[in-house]
Specification:
The chain is an all-alpha fold and 311 residues long. A two-stranded antiparallel ribbon has the order 1-2. Helix 4 packs antiparallel against helix 5 and helix 6 packs antiparallel against helix 7. The model has no long low-confidence stretch (mean pLDDT 84).
Length: 311
């Protein structure tokens, strides 16, 4: 009498075990099989697994940020909506990279083992930065007393840095380091705006925002500084592998994306939104649901009292 159960009978058959492991393999990450790499030095399956994990984290953060946005009154959601846009852009970029899409092969300058190997350059990542970095700076600098011209010039140089990094990554010769030099020179202006000029401006929302700005701006300035280091070792000098590049950039994007945004929104939790002066002035009816500042409330009360006395 055979007393073995169905599972034991299944495992006792070599063919069944082979089919089982083939099924597990098919159920795994098949991105590199469906979209084969297009360069000699390319993304590995483990690197793709990491990118899928980052994509999942970004998607989860979108859900959280969207919920927080709808908890804010209409007319006071700008900073939360910036977070949603940044996280949505990052999720699309990491979905593409995890699926081994959005890259182009470029011959490397430093070959290491000889020959003429090519390396995957991920232009989709630069599209992500082209959108996200200016938005992060707009959100941060709008809490300060910087003039509109200063904010726009800072945003321009953020775009300038991303463009220099992209062009440098696509250049095969040593001329790429010229673009890297321009990128680093731009950092001097960025640091000056974030850490010197903006903190010395007038904060209309008060000291609570000023104190929080020092923390958030210092955090963002430090994180941005780490990107050129990774670029120099990856797209620049071809020192680290594509998978190592993905891990490094993924950690930076998580800290600069969800990490920075939630820290930024936390520091603004007690600030008066109307003090920033970001209302459009259009008669949409949304301004009625936005929280009013104490000065506005006092002004309306005094105006009403004056009207009653005149009547």
């Amino acid at each position: 009498m055979n007393t073995s159960g169905p599972s034991e009978a299944f495992l006792s058959s070599p063919r069944s075990v082979s089919v089982y492991f083939d099924f597990l393999a098919m159920a795994g990450n098949q991105a590199l099989h469906i979209n084969p790499p297009n360069a000699d030095e390319h993304l590995t399956t483990h690197g793709s697994d990491w990118l899928w994990a980052v994509f999942a984290i970004m998607t989860l953060c979108i859900c959280i940020s969207s919920r927080l946005t709808h908890m804010k009154p209409r007319g006071s959601r700008m900073f939360n909506q910036i977070a949603v846009v940044v996280l949505s852009t990052s999720s699309v970029a990491y979905l593409s990279m995890a699926a081994d899409l959005g890259a182009t092969p470029i011959d490397v300058e430093f070959r290491g083992h000889g020959g003429h190997p090519s390396r995957q350059i991920w232009y989709v990542r630069y599209i992500q930065w082209f959108i996200n970095f200016p938005l992060l700076l707009v959100g941060l600098l709008c809490t300060t007393g910087l003039s509109l011209s200063d904010i726009l010039s800072t945003v321009y140089f953020a775009i300038f840095m991303v463009v220099c990094a992209l062009i440098g990554a696509l250049v095969k010769s040593s001329y790429k380091w010229g673009y890297f030099g321009l990128l680093m020179a731009t950092y001097i202006y960025m640091w000056q705006q974030l850490l010197w000029h903006a903190p010395r401006s007038t904060f209309a929302a008060g000291g609570i925002v000023r104190r929080g700005y020092y923390v958030v701006a210092g955090y963002l300035a430090f994180m941005i500084t780490l990107y050129p280091i990774c670029w120099a070792l990856a797209e620049g000098a071809n020192v680290i592998s594509v998978t190592s590049e993905m891990i490094w950039y993924g950690i930076l994007d998580l800290l600069t994306g969800p990490g920075f945004l939630f820290l930024f929104l936390w520091e603004l939790r007690g600030a008066d939104y109307n003090a920033f002066g970001l209302q459009s002035g259009k008669h949409t009816g949304y301004e009625r649901s936005a929280p009013r500042s104490e000065k506005e409330a006092q002004f309306e009360q005094s105006a009403t009292a004056s009207g009653d006395q005149a009547a």
